[in-house]
Amino acid sequence: MLAGHGTGLAGEEMGSEANAYGNIGYKIAECLGELTALGPILKELAKPANDLLRGCIVGEGLAAAAITALQAG
């Protein structure tokens, strides 16, 4: 059992099947925990870039753009 308030959920890329399970998992966490799920957030690239999932809403796109701008410095 977890206690306290979570601030993030991170996972490693392990192939397309694991990625699909990860996407499902964080969407379930979003629905059950009344959280906002964003991602995937890409790190350690030469230039900042992030990905939007098919079917995302405008707010998710704006949040991804804001995170990408922060990554750019």
Automatic annotation (TrEMBL):
Please name the InterPro entries in this protein's record: P_AcTrfase_dom1 (IPR042113), P_AcTrfase_dom2 (IPR042112), PTA_PTB (IPR002505)
Residues of the signal peptide: none
Q: Where is the Phosphate acetyl/butaryl transferase domain?
A: 22-69
Q: Which residues form a coiled coil?
A: none
- One Pfam annotation reads PTA_PTB
Q: Which GO terms describe its molecular function?
A: acyltransferase activity
Can you name this protein? Phosphate acetyl/butaryl transferase domain-containing protein
Organism name: Paracoccus methylarcula
Q: What is the lineage of its organism?
A: Bacteria, Pseudomonadati, Pseudomonadota, Alphaproteobacteria, Rhodobacterales
